[in-house]
Structures
1.
Amino acid sequence: MTWQRVRAEVHRRITDRLWLPGESIPIEADLALELGCSRSTVNRALRALAEEGLLERRRKGGTRVTKTPAARAKLSVPLIRIEIEAQGARYAHRVLRRERIRSPATVRTSLGITDERRLLHLETLHLADGCPFVLEDRWVDPLTVPSLLEADLERISVNEWLVAHVPLSRGDIAFSAVAADAATASILEVEPGAALFVVERTTWRDESGITCVHLSYRPGHRVETTL
Amino acid sequence: MTWQRVRAEVHRRITDRLWLPGESIPIEADLALELGCSRSTVNRALRALAEEGLLERRRKGGTRVTKTPAARAKLSVPLIRIEIEAQGARYAHRVLRRERIRSPATVRTSLGITDERRLLHLETLHLADGCPFVLEDRWVDPLTVPSLLEADLERISVNEWLVAHVPLSRGDIAFSAVAADAATASILEVEPGAALFVVERTTWRDESGITCVHLSYRPGHRVETTL
DNA sequence: AAGTGGTCTAGACCACTCC
DNA sequence: GAGTGGTCTAGACCACTTA
């Protein structure tokens, strides 16, 4: 009995409603006995189902079938270059603006910056086969990534530079739909008011904010994944 | 040495660039020896890091640090009612349309339906504190969920009914931004052309398509998560 | 206080894949 | 063919939580 088979069997009992939502299922030891395997194997199977949101586990409380499981999707947000190349298009980018200025309060807040220091502000247009694909508006705190100031961002986009040099970080990400303002519309070569897919990301390393970025995708862009 | 500490230590060696992207790291047995724990513990730690996308593992090939890790987010898509109540608003829904008709080819294709059978088509408006929040346009194959035909969908929304009665299923999900057409705009009480956040989901049970749904969110809606 | 899941261990065998 | 990760086992102790 492999843990995958145990998992499949438990999954079946839930879908077949032998174990109803909200109900407790047998404890690991009993399941191990019934299925003829060790408790470790049962543990691994149940742990996997709990990570998927189908089971809820508590010490002493036992394991229950989740009442209303939220659909869970694993989203993978690749580099913009990879995203474009995956469509079979040629990637290019253009730096539209690069300046070191005081940042708006909203940016300072989301990065957790309290003083008045100037941040690096970058506006980059990413192109697929020469057509505007996404406009990147990014603020970077040079205190956390000083070497970025010397980087040749015409060759490597900030996006890629950061992933390569600060690969591991935690952050928030948000998706929304926004009507294009005049400036953005003109850069993306769409009508003002067009529905843009917007991704906002704030990235942290330990306790200090590194960068926050606003991505405005050309209409038609989709983010797809599997449940 | 717990597996979480092993994981943290390996994570540190990657962030500190002791192990560079693309490089192989020591084999499990050696790490176990060095860190003073059993191989199982190292295995669990490395497996976790691989699931996060930081490591790539292959039998015989060993374990390598991922070159360009894609940001990975776990997205949880809750019931619309839960979503609204989480904002502190009162939930309500209204069934705008309920009919049994032949479906458009696009719907038949995504559900994998080959014959001409009529599907259940439902249009439901979900309200937060009485204000339109999201418009749900859904097709259900009654062959896979026959009992839905007798459900009282004025009391329980289709959305919720399906989650409760067909809780376990796989599916695709896509996010995009779309300009509101006249009909949708009037229902959501926004200007035609407004930027709507759109979620499209197709849900399967085993090999048969259950339902496909198109959700048009009122402008301002955001989907947030953590990397 | 006691029951349940969380984890660690040491050892074993197996499956994959690179050389 | 051989090296590496994948997994199973039996037993043990611990941490949390609820009854």
2.
Amino acid sequence: MPELPEVEIVCRGLADAFVGHRLTGVIRRFNRLRWPIPDALEQLILGPSGAGGVLRSVERRSKYLLLGFDTGTLLIHLGMSGTLRRLAGGVPLRVHDHVDFVFGEHVLRYNDPRRFGAVLWSADTAQATASGHALFRKLGVEPLGEQFTGRLMYEATRRRATPIKQVLLSGAVVVGVGNIYASESLFRAGIRPTVAAGRIGASRYDRLAGSIRQTLLDAIAAGGSTLRDFVASTGQTGYFQLQCNVYGRTGQPCRVCGGPIRAIRQQQRATFYCPACQRA
DNA sequence: AGAATAACCTGCGTGC
DNA sequence: TGCACGCAGGTTATTC
């Protein structure tokens, strides 16, 4: 599944390919993703007169894509296994191709084998939705935004016994840090994933905030990560060459100290770290 | 309230 | 070859 960098890449790809283009149809083949796809989605997008449907903007909030139309905002989440591909008309269907958004000669095709993703509608415009939709109410700050600082993390975690890895994954403080980049960011910061969030001091949170930001920026620069089924919105299969330092490298030598990378489980999720480089 | 667990799904690799 | 099992990038609802 996509983490924030992958969603950001898709977001940019969508903006380049479809902003200013008019949606001419929605074809839905399977209705139940995480939630049901709203009834009459096509009419909602096109508006009562049927004259709407020009895509005005594409934004990202956390791992949600926000497609702004004059009538409201289409919200898309890719879950663990979702992809969006831009295809010419007439490309044969694959299994799990649940929704097509038709833009004239091209189609934006949503595929999601595990169906943890979502296609939703908000009557708000994109900007209002980003701050006001119920889905976004409890979310933390954007990791690439100015509000995200070590100080913020420090203040949000006082007296909290939860391991720092789980705090990162929860999205309540900062969003967009998924299972791969949580491990990678903590490695870069030299912090052990099991440490209680409340026991990390202000200066180490400064370092962690910088590590998170840089890890995500590096991944975006690399065009996403090396995830198996990530597909850029252009339809190009994305095997990008972001090299992980710890994720998936159990037993292999740490790229810094040469010692073996260790794997543990936290909240039923794999965590990877270097016991020597991440001592506390 | 914070924290831990279960649940939603399919696909793939592994080991018997 | 087949089958059971565990695991996978996320998020929520439920429980204590």
